[in-house]
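Chapter review. Work through the record for 4-hydroxythreonine-4-phosphate dehydrogenase before attempting the end-of-chapter questions.
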Amino acid sequence: MNKPTLAMTVGDVAGIGPEITAKCLLGHDDLRSECVPVVVGDVGALRAGVTIAGGDPDVVRELEDPRQATNQPGTIEVVPVGDSLPDVPLGSLSDVAGDAACRYVVAACDLAKREAVDGIVTAPLNKAAMHAAGHQWPGHTELLAHEFGVQDYSLVLSAADLYFFHLTTHVSLHDAIGAVTRERTDAVLQLAGAFTKALGRPAERIGVAGLNPHAGEGRLFGHEDADVLAPAITAAQTGGINAVGPLPADALIPAAVRGQWQMVVVCYHDQGHAPFKAVYGDNGVNITVGLPVVRVSVDHGTAFDIAGRGIAREDSLVLACRRAAQLAPGWDHVWQTAQQADAPADPRPTL
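Structure tokens for 4-hydroxythreonine-4-phosphate dehydrogenase:
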């Protein structure tokens, strides 16, 4: 099988994106046996990132098209977007850098539309910088969805062989409760089922966390688990998806961390993000399900406080590349199922 070509957007050049990109591509040659990584972004910033990482900036090579990539170890091949930004100071909020970070994402989407790449991997952008530049997206996800013209998508956190799907993300807890609907739950279970098939594990159990304490305990602590989640799980089972629950979140999530579940559906942001980040830190990634190509992101921010100091860790970016390379060959099935599911979009799923 041909190795998938991945467009790696360099993120906000005032942050750690260029540095961790350099460390990823110069310190992990084994990645090249899994994928063909091509950076999309600022050549000058990437050369500076190589220098910060202790490398020779001359290893950066410009390409006009990702299909020209040689994938040679010890080199970084880049499709440049716009002019270089030498005057952007590291560690400072910059509308210029925020604008550029958005343009890198748009360029990566254009490459995917032209089938010049098979997936997208994103280094972090800064939402405040992006907004200062006039791009009023809550985050990467909405920008990507806009560029691909999709309305329905879901956020999935992943580390090792564990995947957390989210019914809702960046909304208030009050609004999240109302957004856990039968329609949304049906759709996300369909997406989770398609995802397991893309991994070659169609019979994989999918544990669904209850919304309320003890999954409602027979409506003693809320009706949503019995009236919304349970019927959706039954319907998914009827359709051949091995969904289980709703299960008390305080039992399901620790069991998942211990390896007893690989697929979990959580109801709201902190139900998934808080335990996930407490356990995995920066060793997780964010996958967007619902786009026509696989997109995987680091699960951390621009880290302005350490930008330029040479101490930023590339672990999450390396994992993002591996996840994208793993998922790209079977992604068309996930995409087709996502279209069929007609899932209502999470009001503000970001990162």
